[in-house]
Design goal:
The complex is a heterodimer. Helix content of chain A is 85%, strand content 0%. Chain B is mainly α. In chain B, helix 6 runs parallel beside helix 8 and helix 7 packs antiparallel against helix 8. Classes of the chains: A mainly alpha, B mainly alpha.
Chain lengths: 61, 240
Amino acid sequence: MMQKDLTQAVILFMGFGLGSVALFFLFAAPDVALTEAVIGTGVSSIVFLIGIKQMDKKDVS
Amino acid sequence: LSIIRTIKREVELKKSVYAVISAMLLITLLSFITIVSYTFAGSAGEELLKLNASTGSANVVTTVVTFFRGFDTLGEISVLFLASTGIGFLLQQEHKTSTFKFEPNFMLKVGSKLLFPVIVLFGLYVIVHGHLSPGGGFQGGVVIANAFLLLMLADAKFHLSHSIVAFAESSIGVAYVVVALIGLYVMDIFLGNFLPHSSNDIGLLFSAGIIPIIYIIVGVKVGSEMSAIVENILRRESHE
């Protein structure tokens, strides 16, 4: 929440996603856990990382 | 300077106090949720569980998503199609040949090509067994899209054939409506379950009538849409 480095923020977001996967699994919702694992920590964080890379390029040039 | 130091110390103290408070709140909330979910084990859920036996599907979530709320799933798929179309429209303003600045490592290429069929196989398993085990079309479709994403990241020369993806997503969208309309024709219900679905063969691969067919359609649709989105974003990324 108070992280200033965007890349580290995305990594922390992935960690948060993994934690919520564990919680979903504990609360007997494996469907939601699978969705969160694939979408929340997989695709969305990669899209965030690509966006951060583009922003860095614009800052330099 | 000393004042600044004390202020910093106070800020850190505040941060730790906030962290402790939020952790306690989280724990109380979780325990509350567990107590509530054990005492009022939902009436609507119970009814759906009872109804689920008549559809011959082993997974209640799948039955709800593709059968009781099949029309909503059709809407979700069209939302995904609109999102993919919009991203493609926004990001394809300039057409340049994409080149990465670095040559990908040999090990990276071979490793990703080794891993690719395993991930695709897992995605297909999740899709096909959607009515038996957790998972289904959405999850399996995104797993397959992730496999394509891996290939795209590792090998710059790999490109999805745009015509194949477009054909897959449009024809499979039509197939969903066609299956639903056959149900309307045979059973007088939109998305009627016109295939045999006796509750005796719960747990078999070929059971539950049209539910696995609809989930396979959803899986192909989601997989092609997500692959198209990721391909558009990555290609745009490699232009600049």
